[in-house]
Structure formats: structure tokens, C-alpha cells
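re the bet — no i am not wrong, look at it urself. input seq straight from the record:
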Amino acid sequence: MTLILEPGTTVAHAWWWRTGDGPIDPADLALLSKAERDRAARFVHLGTAVGFVAGRAASRRILSDLLDVPPAEICLGRRPCPGCGDPLHGPPAVLHPASPLWISISHTDGCGMLGVARVPVGVDVEVVREFPIDELAPATLTESERRVVFDAADGDPRTRAFLRCWTRKEAVLKAVGVGITTDLRTVETRPELSGPAVVAAGVPGTPAAWTVTDLAVPGAWAAAVSVPADSDGSRPEVRLHEHV
């Protein structure tokens, strides 16, 4: 996987993996830092703890292959938040070893995902399930997004249309580094486009435009990845891998 380390290329890699309901795998837990183990112990639901532990362990194993260091030696932390500078809630980062790579981590019921690129990157994965779309839409969707979502047939088609908007917003805002702390109604994701969409996040000090691409993750999940939009309008190369 040498291409990911070559400068001058805009390539976004996304790895996905399946997770179970429990128990936590001791081999996964052994790769986590004490702070991560303490955080996992605070989760009320076992499935959430399993997803978190599996995600941190899988991320280290994937990064181990990319950085050529043992997974246990990889230290994960955060970059400072681009909005307020707080180091406690910025985007995830590889703190050790020194690396040019940016990362993003996401997990949902039954699935986890890691995004890696040489530029800021964001990934989001969501399990396809029932949502109170009527209640969520006014606070989360733009006017044009609402038209696309409610033009879709009730049931699974509408749910997937909503999740296309949601995962694209999350992926972009994770790439920006602020997460969903901003007003989601200001982020237009162009869900009528099946291909990559250029999205503006409007966060000072970060790229003005982001390219977000839907990911064809098998199973009952929806996912997206985002990187800064190229100034020449070219599309980034996106590669999806299964981690087993």
C-alpha cells in the first residue's frame, strides 16, 4: 500500500470491518491505551464498548501495516479542534510514530471504519434502521435535502435517502475536525447526486470545499468519506477495503 504514502496524490482509503455484540476480544483490549480501556469500561451498552474497542484495535492493526511498526506501539490521540483550539475534542490523530497521515474513525451497530489519507479525511458509517425522519429533518436537513428525502418512497428508500445526507454531513464535518457541533442545516450535501458531491462546511481556517463520496459497504450500512476538494475540480481517488 505504498501509494498512500506518496506525496502529491489525493487518495482516500477507507477500511471497514464487522463487529459483534460481545464479549470484548482480549487481544483487541490489549492494544488499547489505559485511557481508552477506561473509556470502554464507562460505556453502558456492551455492543457500544465492543465497537469502540474493536475500532481502536483494528485501526492500530491497519496503521501498523502502513507505518511498518507494531500495532501496540501506535499511539492514537487528537489534533487540536480547528474551531476552538481545544486538544481534547479535535479530530483523531496518530501521535506516534511521526506520520504524514490523517485519520478518521467511525463505528455503528455491527460495523466500524477507518479513513486514511495524506490530507484531512472524514468517514462516517451508520446502520440502516428506522429513524424519526419527520422529527429530525427540520433540524438537520436543508430545504433541498428535505425535498429529496420526502420525494423518496416511505420505508427503506426514504431511510437511505436520509442517511445519504447524514453520512455525508458527518464525513465532511469530521474531515473539517469539528464534528456535528455546527448547524447541520448549513451543510448542503446534494443527495440527488449519486456520485461525489462538493460540499461547503463554512468553518474558518479550514478548506472552503470538500469532496464527499458514498461508500458501497456491503450489508445494512450506509457510509461516506470526505477530503478537501481539489482546486482543479478533479475527483479524489477513493479505495474501499475490508479488514478481517
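see?? Residues 46-67 form the longest helix (22 residues). told u. also Residues 2-242 form a domain with the Ribosomal Protein L22; Chain A fold (CATH 3.90.470.20). so pay up
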